[in-house]
Amino acid sequence: xxxxxxSPEARAFRERLRTWLAxxxxxAWRRAGGEDLTDDEVxxxxxxxxxxxxxxGYAGVTWPVEFGxxxxxxxxEYVFYEECARAGAPEGLxxxxxxxxxxxxxxxxxxxxxxxxxxxxxxxxxxxxQGFSEPGAGSDLAxxxxxxxxxxxxxxxxxxxTWTSFAHYADWCLLLALTGPAELRHxxxxxxxxxxxxxxxxxxxIRQISxxxxxxxxxxxxxxxxxxNRIGAEDDGWRVAMTVLTNERGMAEAANRYVDLMxxxxxxxxxxxxxxxxxxxxxxxxxxxxxDRVEALRWQVMRAVEKxxxxxxxxxxxxxxxxxxxxxxxxxASAGLGLGCAEHASWWRRRYLESRATTIxxxxxxxxRNIIAERVLGLPK
Length: 381
Ligand SMILES: Cc1cc2nc3c(=O)[nH]c(=O)nc-3n(C[C@H](O)[C@H](O)[C@H](O)COP(=O)(O)OP(=O)(O)OC[C@H]3O[C@@H](n4cnc5c(N)ncnc54)[C@H](O)[C@@H]3O)c2cc1C
Known about the structure:
By secondary structure, the chain is an alpha+beta fold. The chain has helices at 8-24, 27-32, 39-55, 74-86, 95-108, 111-123, 237-248, 251-271, 288-309, 315-339, 345-355, 365-376, and strands at residues 128-131, 147-151, 154-165, 172-178, 189-195, 201-206, 215-226, 230-231. 48% of the residues lie in helices and 14% in strands.
């Protein structure tokens, strides 16, 4: 494991990866990012990408070698996601399994659970979704009300989840459910592995502002879940959920978003004709200011990753980076629309609509600010 982006190991890894990506990213995807493909074609490209990652040994890059991963540290992990994004690689359908379910099973699962679920996650054969949010429990995740009542060797699960990405393709759901008394906040939840094909599970896709349907409402009506499918102890699901959330706000997202922002920044300069210009009353300067903000993000990310590789805590950087890139993405999309460039109007419209979600998922901007104030800076509540 290397601790620096400039090390010979990190450079060599980047070169090898670039060569592999050059020969493996599907041309149709590289060109238009799936824009000109039907939903079914998009799904097939993403499944095929999962298979290619597995065949090349690039699935589960940070998983320990003993569980079929590569055992990479933070620097290689960041390089991996950055290069994938730069090469215009698709996002595999197995993302939730590889980034969230797998590491959670490795940290908290039983040997039987690891033996059963890890390999099909890596190979892309089984798709996972994350069933945390509910109509009344988003930022306040401890308010989850989906109930899992114990009935001998099974739990009977009833309730509703919402905003569940990938649920319409998923085989398994990482479900946070109430197993204890409602008033025992944080000490009444359990993490369950739920079969999405079981009787009583209904998935309803939600149509998004962008026109696509990438997430869903999921209803559980007296669904039987074996007790053996619980990850961790009963009523200790909050601790397991924190592992999931820490992985969710990890380096994959920061690397991908940095590359997206680079593309936006180039597009912004092109649309503005490379001339300093004022945008929508922005008095800080012309479009160049956005390129500077992207560059500042790059240095922040690299510093945080190297610190983490030397054993430092990723947590304080996590909230700051999420806040920074998500709000920058929205600012740039608004600026792009404001330029009124006829040639790239559809790019900016899409960016503007897509970027609405960035300050909501993986913890809203308000929640990130709370985390920074209370848990990073230690300010009083
Ligand atoms: C694209 C996308 C994909 C998603 N995928 C998934 C998924 O796969 N699985 C899943 O479980 N969830 C998923 N989510 C849900 C996401 O985690 C929640 O939307 C998010 O946690 C916010 O919860 P909420 O929507 O219920 O908003 P609320 O929590 O109701 O918040 C509403 C508003 O109040 C503010 N607010 C709330 N509490 C506070 C506070 N204490 N202090 C200050 N302000 C506060 C919020 O910032 C927000 O502006 C996804 C969301 C999006 C947008």
